Amino acid sequence: MSDVLQLLDPIEDEKLCVFLLEKALSKLPAGQHKILGIFDLRGFRSQNADLKFLTFLVFLSPYR
């Protein structure tokens, strides 16, 4: 499985994230501009963290 994960392009993950966020925002009623993300961190370890993607999410949040 780790070989498959190495083949995935991190930029594609970011593009998918932006697409899904834009789609969610487009479904909000007029005048609404906020969504809530809930993350299940059970089993979270620093060894399995994608810090580059987390950094992307943190820097993306001001541009909503």
Task: Give the biggest sheet.
Answer: none
Number of strands: 0
Low-confidence stretches: none
The number of distinct structural domains comes to 1
SSE class: mainly alpha
- For the record, give the distance between the C-alpha atoms at the N and C termini, rounded to a whole number: 34 Å
Overall form: globular
Report Rg.
14 Å
The string of secondary-structure elements, in order, is HHH
Number of helices: 3
What does this structure look like?
The protein is an all-alpha fold. The chain has helices at 2-7, 10-26, 51-60. 52% of the residues lie in helices and 0% in strands. The protein has one domain (2-63).
Task: Provide a compact summary of the structure.
This protein has 64 residues and is mainly α.
Topology, element by element:
Layout: H1 2-7, H2 10-26, H3 51-60
Attribute tags:
3 helices; 64 residues; mainly alpha; single chain
